[in-house]
Amino acid sequence: MKSLVLSVLSAAAIAVVATAAxxxxxxxxxxxxxxxxxVNNDGRLSRVEFDAARxxxxxxxxxxxxxxxxxxxxxxxxxxxxxxxxxxxxxxxxQKLRAIDxxxxxxxxxxxxxxxxxxxFAAADRNRDGFITRDEIADLARAMTLGG
Length: 148
Hints:
By secondary structure, the chain is mainly alpha-helical. The chain has one domain (2-143). Helices cover 46% and strands 7% of the residues. The strands form 2 sheets. The chain has a two-stranded antiparallel sheet with strand order 1-4. The longest helix is centred in the middle third of the chain and has 15 residues, at 47-61. The termini are close together. Mean pLDDT is 74; it is low at 1-27.
């Protein structure tokens, strides 16, 4: 479910914020998302930019504005161009949700979602320089899918 959440942000940064939704390679819509997340236009995402992108993605996905993402809201966070989610979540998706859902309310609240940011950022920042480049976000996006 972690990958669901981040792709489900993916980056990144699961948004107008690329990692949040590092959903794509650095071309087309993926490039636009990265540029939106890169608020200082330096060609890389800092941890602050990454976190802001993911939180923006969370807010947009929270269709009922209750501060929690249900499975259906999480599944709607798929990257642009990804196939539509199945009608029912897979067993693997449910298990991943349970791993993130620390209070067992069958939803992911903002604090549970934020807890993933550090792992997501570290996974994308391959060279450990404290920033995520377009190449790094593309690699992360390729490695992540809704199902796993």
